[in-house]
Specification:
Blueprint lengths: L1 E6 L3 H12 L4 E8 L2 H15 L4 E4 L5 H11 L3 E4 L6 H11 L2 E4 L14 H4 L2 H7 L2 E4 L7 H12 L6 E8 L13 H8 L3 E5 L2 E5 L5 E6 L3 E8 L3 H8 L5 E7 L2 H12 L8 E3 L2 E3 L1 H8 L13 E11 L6 E11 H8 L3 H18 L7 E4 L6 H9 L4 E6 L6
Parallel strand pairs: 1-2, 1-4, 2-3, 4-5, 5-6, 6-17, 7-12
Antiparallel strand pairs: 7-15, 8-9, 8-12, 10-11, 11-12, 13-14, 15-16, 16-18
Helix pairs in contact: 1-2, 1-13, 3-4, 13-14
The structure holds NADPH dihydro-nicotinamide-adenine-dinucleotide phosphate.
Length: about 400
């Protein structure tokens, strides 16, 4: 159906590119480009071995817009799938506009020198993409991504309005490491240590990082402590579903993870500003990333399950009053590794990136402009989750959450 250029060759890319190759009727030609070409070649070799599909590889610094434009033109790509880092979102959107290519990513733009992720930088591209007749799909991972599609599916099929929504992300996986993050350590730690924000009655309320803890019994995972965090879908959901009175995000962390994160923060290892070391400028969090395990290598070691979903309360479509639904996926780390050689966090991000790109190539999501996932029709995406390894379930709860 279409030629695809994937940028970035980390853990998420590994899973996404394998799943694209498994859907060769949709992804007719795949090129994988990244800063370090050997990582692209390693993924290409694994795809060839596991799936029997040849993909092309290239070296690319995404910050070089002219080089990206040239590569888009050379490959004839219809869509660029950005699986590099949030820092590259705007330069890759610029390159897509210049080369006439659709765009998709899994995380919103974040300036490298300020730990602040907000959509306004990317939403400012709305008119440019519309005028160019191109589509940009923002945040097509699991959270953000599937969690927003879940909300839209509930609004299309179960609830007329959503009064309150909680996004719950549990990783019950154990990788045997003293401290490791599930995706890029720099991005992960910036997110986890950020001030908490949630949407309530028309305003953002703030609280210190890791200050609100709730015990929750996750399907397939069991009882875990989850902590309130800020996450980018809170901004897009509260913007696009203005009836939402309260939107919160929760993620599970073990005590050891929190202890390590706090110690690293206290000693300055998570600083994002340059410091002089031995006559050389270094950025502590980037040095820390070099020391920590590469999340892409944790697949073989990780056992257990992840469960991510939404609990939403609102007026039922059938006029029966207020209803609460819990919609979620349970994903098994070892099953992901057996299928594509990834752990579940890379898999639960990479598969929705593939499905989002497939929606564009199939022509379902091709309206020109810049779109968040909850603005797009959910049905075929939800069907593909079921057939592509991320089956979901929806259950009615007795009433709204009590935490
Ligand atoms: P990794 O660090 O494993 O991979 C990032 C890749 O991007 C690396 O191959 C890196 O190259 C490459 N890269 C970085 N800078 C450039 C550049 N300037 N030009 C070209 N390539 C570059 O990250 P993950 O795979 O863990 O995460 C990928 C993305 O997915 C991130 O944006 C993350 O925030 C997002 N994510 C989204 C989730 C969701 O559910 N929505 C969940 C998890 C992650 P090199 O190896 O040379 O450094």
């Amino acid at each position: 159906m279409g030629k695809t250029l994937v940028v970035g060759a980390g853990g998420v890319s590994h899973a996404a590119v394998h799943k694209m190759a498994m859907n060769a009727d949709i992804f007719t030609e795949i090129t994988l480009a990244s800063r370090t070409k050997s990582k692209c070649d390693a993924i290409a070799a694994s795809v060839k071995e596991r799936v029997g599909v040849e993909i092309k590889t290239a070296e690319l610094d995404a910050n070089d817009v002219a080089a990206t434009v040239a590569l888009i033109k050379e490959t004839g790509a219809e869509i660029l799938v950005n699986l590099a880092l949030p820092y590259q979102d705007l330069v890759l959107m610029d390159a897509c506009l210049e080369a006439g290519c659709h765009y998709l990513d899994t995380a919103n733009y974040e300036p490298e020198d300020v730990a602040k992720f907000e959509y306004h930088w990317q939403w400012a591209y709305q008119d440019k993409f519309k005028e160019a007749g191109l589509t940009a799909i923002l945040g097509s991972g699991f959270d953000p991504g599937v969690t927003s599609v879940f909300a839209t599916w509930l609004k299309k099929h179960k609830l007329d309005t959503i009064r309150q929504i909680d996004v719950l992300d549990a990783n019950g996986g154990d990788n045997g490491q003293a401290f490791a993050t599930n995706f890029n350590p720099e991005i992960n730690l910036r997110e986890v240590l950020a001030e908490v924000r949630h949407w309530e009655n028309g305003e953002w309320l703030t609280s210190p990082a890791m200050s609100t803890k709730v015990e929750f019994d996750f399907p397939g995972v069991g009882v875990k402590n989850m902590y309130q965090m800020y996450h980018e879908e809170l901004e897009s959901l509260s913007t696009h579903f203005p009836e939402i009175e309260r939107a919160r995000f929760w993620m599970t962390f073990g005590d050891a993870y929190i202890m390590h994160a706090k110690v690293l923060e206290n000693v300055g290892m998570t600083r994002i500003d340059p410091v002089m070391h031995d006559g050389k400028e270094i950025i502590p969090i980037q040095f820390l990333k070099t020391l920590l395990p590469d999340p892409g290598d944790l697949g073989a070691l990780t056992k257990g399950k992840a469960c991510i979903g939404d609990i939403a309360t609102g007026q039922a479509k059938d006029g029966s009053g207020e209803k609460t639904y819990y919609i979620y996926n349970i994903c098994d780390h070892e099953e992901c590794y057996a299928e594509v050689g990834s752990q579940a966090v890379s898999y639960t991000t990479g598969v929705p990136a593939m499905i989002g790109a497939a929606q564009l190539l199939k022509g379902n999501w091709k309206e020109p402009g810049v779109w968040n996932m909850e603005q797009l029709d959910p049905d075929d995406f939800m069907d593909m989750l079921n057939t592509q390894g991320l089956p979901w379930q929806v259950h009615e709860l007795d009433g709204p959450v009590e935490f």
